[in-house]
Amino acid sequence: MKLPFVRCCALLVPIFVSLFAAESPPRPNILLIVADDLGYHDVGFQGGRDIPTPHLDRLAASGIRCTDGYVSYPVCSPSRAGILTGRYQQRFGYEFNPKWDATAATHGLPLSETTLADSLRSAGYTTGAIGKWHLGAHPQFHPNRRGFDEFFGFLGGGHRYLPGSIVEVEVGAGKKGTTSGDAEQASPLLRNTTAVPEVGELTTRLGEEAAASVTRHARNAKPWFLYLAFNAPHTPLQAREDMLKKFAAIADARRRTYAAMVATVDEAVGRIVTALEAAGQRERTLIFFISDNGGPMTKRNANASVNSPLHGQKGDVFEGGIRVPFLVSWPARIPAGRTYTQPVISLDILPTALAAAGATRAAALAPLDGTDLLPFLTGKNDSAPHARLFWRMDGGEAFAVREGQWKWLRTYQNAPQLFDLATDLGESRDLASARPEIAARLAAASAEWNRDLIAPAFGNNPFGGLINRTGLEKNPAP
Ligand code: CA
Question: Which end of the chain is more exposed for a tag (fewer CB within 10 A), N or C?
Fold first, then answer.
């Protein structure tokens, strides 16, 4: 007897589905952890010794440490806009921190941009954001409207760590006082759009929320994406008493508190990895860990961080502002205990995550600048992921280019400089005069890249201009 075609297909479909399920590993969970203003040297896996970070070191040992891992901007908010879009954020005018103002409809991630969470949610992922948002305080920019099913955290660029504490915000050179930043630091903690009481030290709580999210979603069939954006160890310098006691041997009170804050981030990461292991999901979880920019050592919001052996700091296009601790761990697919030395950038996280998820972006979306790193990290492709990486700051007041060993940069009114990072990681010997042909090539490449960028769509310079001609010294936000 012949089966009708439709019935035949109906019988075969479950067989194909079961075969497919048996042969295909489950899609990975994706955990993107971002620290805030963390010094390049201030974790154990980067060579730091005075702040033990056993959980982060274990994470590094479980995957690949990228020695030349960059972010696309040396301050918080534009860097995060790059991370979540995979695009140089100057393409869409995102070149300053946004105002802390719920009525500022232009100060945030433009609604024309698509986030990593948008794409993963379209691909069937459960998506969550925990911690610092800082991509616009206007309701239209809320994480729940930018691809995240769940949100727990705060919308501004920073937050006090200890409930009820008074935070004095720096308002000028060496001066402290009251600005809208104080309200930002004390803004409500939100679960989605509902304010919840502040209880306990904030970094600890963010870690607990993330671990609970891991445990909760492990019961679901759907894979998940969690964006865990700590505000630590950004100022204000505040930490738990028990953590401060662990670092009593550090004489400098600011460094002691900073160390306690970094250790609290480490403890939180340990709590999350423990939850993953308890749920049996560590192997199938792709984890990224980066800082959003280099440590601020002497400028506004300095936090006693150390970027050694790099030159410069947050707010600079020198290496200390843009090169960050950068880990990728996925036990099921990526080798453990390796280092990767080709330049990579935070813009690569989005295409890497989408490739891992088997998700594709809609063709109509604007092109990415990032590259899928999986072929490179798994050894299938031994060329460099990027011929060149680029930076622009403050609407064109500073530029930098990385090409292989070479780093070209121009800052404000200074003459362009050229450094050979292979022999001069600390950017101390300017070779622009000695190697004019390389300097000219990279200057031309920078100018060509710049042609595709637009002017800043918003600024927060309280001194009048959109473009801040003296750099971050006058930029009041985090
Ligand atoms: Ca930051």
Answer: N
